[in-house]
Structures are given as C-alpha cells and as structure tokens.
Amino acid sequence: MSILLDGIGELVTNSPAHGDGPLGRIRDAALVVDGGRVAWVGASGLAPAADERVEAGGRAAIPGFVDSHAHLVFAGDRATEFAARMSGQPYAAGGIRTTVAATRAASDGELRANLRRLAAEALATGTTTIECKSGYGLTVVDEARSVALAAEVTAEVTFLGAHVVPAEYAGDPDGYVDLVRTAMLDAAAPHARWIDVFCERGAFDADATRAILAAGIARGLVPRLHANQLGPGPGVQLAVEHGAASADHCTHLADVDVAALAGSGTVATLLPGAEFSTRSPYPDARRLIDAGVVVALATDCNPGSSYTTSMPFCIALAVRDMRMTPDEALWAATAGGARALRRDDIGHLAPGARADVVLLDAPSPIHLAYRPGVPLVAAVWKDGAPPTE
Ligand code: NIG
Ligand code: FE
Question: What is the pTM of this model?
Fold first, then answer.
C-alpha cells in the first residue's frame, strides 16, 4: 500500500539530484512511500496519487538519524562517577571495568530490557538506524551473549572485546589480547558485522590493535576504531591503514592524521556527547571538513562517557561548539552516519531509499540546534511504517 506524506514545509532528501544544495532541500514538498521504501519525492503539487494521504501540516521532514556509534549492552549506570567528574575528577578508560562487573552479574533478561529501553529511547528521538557494540562482558561467554543480544535490535553489531583489559588479566595483558583474537572472536563473530578496538593509552596499543584487527578481518569482520579520543596516538593511522569504515572520536589529531583521513575511505565519526560528559575539549570538525574529510556525528551512548541517545543533542553541540553549520551537522547525523556504516539505503530520501523519515515540530531542521533540549521530533517513520504513537 502506498502512502503520500503531503504538506511538508521543508524536506531534506540529502540527494542533490532531487532538491537544492548539498542537502537536496525541497520546499512545500511531498513524499510517497511504498513497500517500506521511498517511491517518489518532489513538489507537493506534482505528487502522484497514492492509496492513503497523511498531512504533515507544514512541518519539516528529514531522513531518520543514523547513530553509527553506541554501546547499549550493559547493566547499571555511573552517575556517581559523572558527579565526581563535574567536581573536578578526570575521566579515565579504567571506569569501563565498573560497568563490566555490573554487566557480568546481570541476567540476559536484564541486559535485554535495558538494551530495548535505550533502543526505544533512540527511536523516539528520531534514530532509525543504530550501531551497537559489545565490550562490557570481556569473557568469551559474556562477549558472545552481548553481540547476540545486540543482534536482536540491529544489523549493525560490533564486536568490541578489546574495550579494556579486564581486572583478571591485569598482570597478563598479552594473554587477554590472545583470548580476544582467538576464542572470543570465534564465539562473537557469527553475530557481528564489525570489529572495533579501543586504541588508546590505558586500553590497547598499536601492536595489540593490529593483531586484533587482523584476526577480525580474517573472520570477515570489517574494522572501525576508537581512535585518538583521550590523547594523540596511532589510532587514526591504523584505521586508515586497515581500510576501516570509520575512525571514531578523532579528538586529538596531528596534521598527518587529518591528511590520512582526507585521502582515505575512512569516515571521521565525532562524538560530542563524550566531550560534553567528560568536560573535555571538543574535536575540531571545521578542520576536518575543510581538509575534505567525511564527517559523521554519533552519540557514543554508554554509561560512562556519554549517557545520551539523543542525536538532536549531538547536533546542537556540534553546531554550537564544533564549528559545524546546521546543514553540515544534519548531514553528518544522517548521510554521514550511513557512510560510516557503509550503507547506501539509509541516511537519504531519494527514491529507493528506506522510508525512514522524521517529522519535526518545526518549519526547518535548523531548529534542531536553534532550540536545544526541546523535543522537536513529532513523528518517526521506520521502514515506511507510519508512527505508532
Ligand atoms: O567511546 N572509549 C571507549 N569507550 C567508551 C567509554 C566507555 C565507558 O567509559 O564506559 C567511549 O567513550
Ligand atoms: Fe565508544
């Protein structure tokens, strides 16, 4: 059954062939959905007939957000750690171990309930595709169940056994790397599409990162990396060298890192929720964009460094504090995320794309940054299904 979504005040297609400018904007627009896909976009007056008509009432419509970086399989929270940080304590990678202990102690049902709660929260704020990492289990059994649970809510599952060296391997980090690249990977790979490593001082160094990525690639997984978050390091170079889909964080970059990203197929995924929540300097999006790097925005939703599922919040931070224009931030949160997940069926609304559409209670998507903290998402269409609320 086809549905005509008519009376859209401003439609962002992210398809320059279908509208004005890089965002492919169409004013007074309509969109036809059929079989879960976009069948037609254009000026309202030219819309073809459809089985059903839904009135947008002059609202803006945008592609659903693509959140290409989230850690949603965990138990407990770290509100006390956040409060301590806001009183002056620094953020350290080791805090991950607190969540590892809570996650190991949780039942499958508890983890599933928390994961589904967060996925639903993300959808309600307009995220129609979300990536989800393991990384709070760090045993063969707990990592395998983490990726299996993640696969229940998304196709974009990432194995992150190399999140931190767990306490029981503190005296034998090499032994942990061996476990990750053998038995843990064997157990997790069937449920995952991606392999990730937290390449950072206090987590995994260049040699460990290379060994783990090589093992993942050998099992058919595609790399993406946590790179250059807490300080300068080899992460971005390793991401580019391994043909990673994305280098994530990119907060502390040397000129050679920017140049390497610019000449590569690796997207720089910026995660401003982490800098907000750890009170750290934001990555310089302007420097990356001006150098020709493809930039994505994502939430990094996790209980330690960025406990938000809100892409509108990340857009507001990126515009206000990372020198991105509202158009650049919107593109990065939709088409950029799709690029970071190597997907061409999402992140835009050209005919043939998945009909993942967000209607905003605003005349223009500029309001996402202009009216921060205001719930502007009026309705979310996922795979062409009209909103259920
Ligand atoms: O992306 N950097 C590593 N992982 C998370 C933090 C996880 C945590 O603190 O629990 C991140 O920021
Ligand atoms: Fe992360």
Answer: 0.97
